[in-house]
Design goal:
- Its cofactor is Zn(2+).
- Keywords: Dipeptidase, Hydrolase, Metal-binding, Metalloprotease, Protease, Zinc.
- The protein has 444 residues and is an alpha+beta fold.
- It folds into two domains: 7-184 and 359-442, Zn peptidases (Aminopeptidase, 3-Layer(aba) Sandwich); 185-356, Alpha-Beta Plaits (2-Layer Sandwich).
- Helices cover 31% and strands 24% of the residues.
- The chain has a six-stranded mixed beta sheet. Strands 11-17-18-10-19 form a five-stranded antiparallel beta sheet, covered by helices on one side.
- The longest helix has 19 residues, at 424-442.
- The relative contact order is 0.18.
- The mean pLDDT is 96.
- The site of zinc ion (ZN) has 5 residues, from loops.
- The site of zinc ion has 5 residues, from loops.
Length: 444
Amino acid sequence: MSTIITEKDQQAAVKTLERLIAVPSYNQPAEAGAPFGRGIRNALDEMMKICDELGFKTYEDPDGYYGYAEVGSGEKVFGVICHLDTVPAGDLSKWDHDPFKGMVVDNAVYGRGAQDDKGPGIAALFAVKALMDQGYHFNQRIRFIYGTDEEILWRGIAEYNKKEAPIDSGISPDAEFPLIYAEKGLQQSYLVGPGTDKLKISLQNAFNAVPDSAVYDGPRQDEVKAALDRHGFEYTSDANSITVIGKSVHAMMAPKGTNAVLRLAIALDEVFDFKPLDFIGKLFKEDATGSNVLGDVKDESGHLTFNISSLEINEKETRMQIDLRIPVTVDRDKLIAELSEKVAPYDLEYVHFDYLAPLYVPKDSALVKTLMKIYKEQTGDSAAQPQISGGATFARTMNNCVAFGGMLPTTPDYMHQANEQWLLADMQKAMEIYAQAIKALCTD
Ligand SMILES: [Zn+2]
């Protein structure tokens, strides 16, 4: 198979990536026409200009939520879903160079967004440009779709899906090669019940992490300590409070962590007679697959994970915050109905907060098979397997879409970190893989 990407294509892609990195685009307060701040809108404007110059037809949402660039003709649309926002630079003293200059340092494109996600987006764009220059005729429309709020709440891509027709298939170059064909459904919710005047605690944590400490400064501490001792739960204490110690992991790996909030709740449940606490103490216990409540819920994408991260009890109410990662083939409505039923005897009510539908494109689909074949041919990694992820990419927001690259398994990971950079050689490899893949999928 002959190579598509030339030295010249690669150089043009690097120059353009430098240009895009030089437009800082992390979330800032909204302005007119810039719902996520001026910087992100500027990056969207710049991206549209770049695509125009390359010969794509562009459309920019007048409200500044998204844009897209298209080449080819026909009814069908193959989407390439990218995002133009980045996380902020963070502590500037940790960077060796300006994160927003846009330059090559030590054979790598350097700066915020080089890996996530400006770099992979540009690599895929210039892969298509190379095919255009070589006279390939596309048998469907190839549409680069640019989201603007991936790092926070996905409002840009939600707006796209509200205003535009669905694509037929596609890729999101915002993760790792070979490809991710399954991402669990992500449900964040509350369990809410009555309050009590006997007990007051406020353990507030992020939805998506297993809490590694839980402080108790209420009454009956000696009894609480005795309960913790009976279970062999680790804690420290002083004259005023007890701190239960756990081990933090991302919620998608909750069963591998030690949840300090659960451990404290189990101990409190043995000291205080309060029904909502029985849900944790008598039923849920410490099993973060939720199997004590819902049975063994699993499929090829793995087990259900069930993280209880926050617990608030006061005179008015009890509130637990939960993060469920639901296996891709499990019926979410049924699962939620069952959970609602199971918590009711503990005076708890299930309350929805947010949901991201799963990504699932079967391994034997034409899309996955073709992309895997190209990846193996291009890398020689014949043992590569399509991957499952507990995380979330834009691929799950679109029909028949998988996360495909742009990081190789050997690429050092700089995403969201200081000194973000992407090795030129890795970028070139990614471009070649994208070019071969789009040639295989979108030309005759
Ligand atoms: Zn990203």
